[in-house]
Amino acid sequence: MRYRKHVTVVVLAVAALLLATGCRDSRHIPMVNGRPEITIMVGGLEKVIYLPAMLTKQLGYFESNDIDVKLLGEQSGANAETALLTGDVQAVVGFYDHTIDLQAKDQCISSVVQFSDVPGEVELVSTADADEIKSTADLRGKNLGVTSLGSSTDFLTQALTGQQGMSTADYTRVKVGAGQTFIAGMNHNGIDAGMTTDPTVAQMVNSGEARILVDMRTEAGTRAALGGLYPATSLYMSCATIDAHPEIVRKLAAAFVQTLQWIKAHTPEEIAAQMPSQYASAGKDLYVQSIRDSIGMFNGDGVMKPEGAQNVLNILGQYSKNVRPVRDRIDLSKTYTTRFVEEALRAPKQ
Q1: Strands 68-73 and 35-42
Q2: What global pTM score does this model have?
Q3: Which of 49, 57, 91, 239 could form a disulfide with 108 if both were Cys (CB 3.0 to 4.6 A apart)?
Q4: What's the DSSP call for residue 337?
Q5: CB-based contacts of 310, cutoff 8 Å, min separation 6
Q6: What is the Cα–Cα distance from 74 to 43, expressed in whole angstroms?
Q7: 62 contact partners, CB below 8 Å, separation of at least 6
Q8: Are 124 and 208 a contacting pair, CB within 8 Å?
Q9: In contact, 271 and 77? CB cutoff 8 Å
């Protein structure tokens, strides 16, 4: 009897702890001084592919749309996805393909602003291995860097190698993150090649440490590599949060659409001048170059192209272990909405 009583006390204590520290509800959006406060996790704040997140804050568009936004950095999109599911954040700026991957796991996540139609990713090869690795067919047996397993760089790596008849058994995927950890991995023989973005691409190519093997920063390069568009950077949220707070989502969408339009109307130098100075830690000229090399990826209106969404499903349906078994039941209409950006585009100019 005493043993049972002890077990009961322990179970109740554990249950209380789980209630206190367990998953939050991302549908709950706190109000601070009468304004909604949104926490957005970004899969790498300093990456040019995610530049609209910080640029929107720097331009004051969150504030002018009557919302407060807190941006958190996270080097892996897979980890950002987890933070959304646990309710630690209300939104993520990350790759659209996570919405499809999560639907395969019976989670409803939707892109509400589509920043780009291409990944903005580059497969770099170490200069030391460049004579041996001249095409994706030469990646067999190599150590290939990805931000993390289950990340978008992982999906894309599988797509590039899969077109050469390889599976993940034919090479080793190495988690190297981004930025300095990626650079260290390549320079210390941790990886032979790997997928990353600007400004890391500009830094490594300019220094002679790496060469470009596959360039998916442009529509032409993406179509050549993946057979079509591959919508990537987006603002995605849980369907429950979108349904519960459409007015807040509308304000978020309006802020980001304003930023995408601003990008199209300004030079790389003008864009770089708006960003935090530490983002140019490797040099102002290099940072401007990295923006110039990647900025064409942003679509200027935030609208998803259905062709692109379908191609993402086609690729994940072949190479994602989660999506492949259920690809025929994936409902793309639940993975994105153009409702809010279309309203923003119709709104009078401020």
Answers
A1: parallel
A2: 0.88
A3: 239
A4: -
A5: 228, 332
A6: 5
A7: 56, 68, 69, 252, 255
A8: no
A9: no
Element (H, E) at 143: strand 143-146
Mean pLDDT of 309-318: 96
80: pLDDT confidence band, cut at 50, 70 and 90?
A: confident
DSSP letter string, 193-230: EEEE-TTHHHHHHHHTSEEEEEEESSHHHHHHHHSS--
CA dihedral 198, 202, 203, 206 (to 10 degrees): 170
Residue 229 corresponds to which amino acid? L
Token pair 């549908």 in the structure block, residue: 27
**8 A C-beta contact, residue 31 and residue 61:** no
DSSP structure class, residue 336:
B
DSSP for 162-179, written as a single string: HTTT--GGGSEEEE--ST
Would you tell me how many other CB atoms lie within 10 Å of the CB of residue 213? 22
pLDDT digits (tens, 9 = 90+) for 110-122: 999 999 999 999 9
Residue 14 has pLDDT above 80, yes or no: no
| Helix extents (H) in the chain | 2-21, 51-58, 61-64, 77-85, 97-103, 152-162, 180-187, 200-207, 219-226, 239-244, 246-264, 268-274, 284-294, 306-319, 339-346
Can you say how many angstroms the Cα of residue 323 is from the centroid of all Cα atoms in its chain? 18
| Residue 206 structure tokens | 């300019």
pLDDT of 198 above 70: yes
| Nearest alpha-carbon partner for 340 in 261, 273, 268, 243 | 243
Query: Which distant-in-sequence residues (6+ apart) come within 8 Å of 63 by Cβ?
Result: none
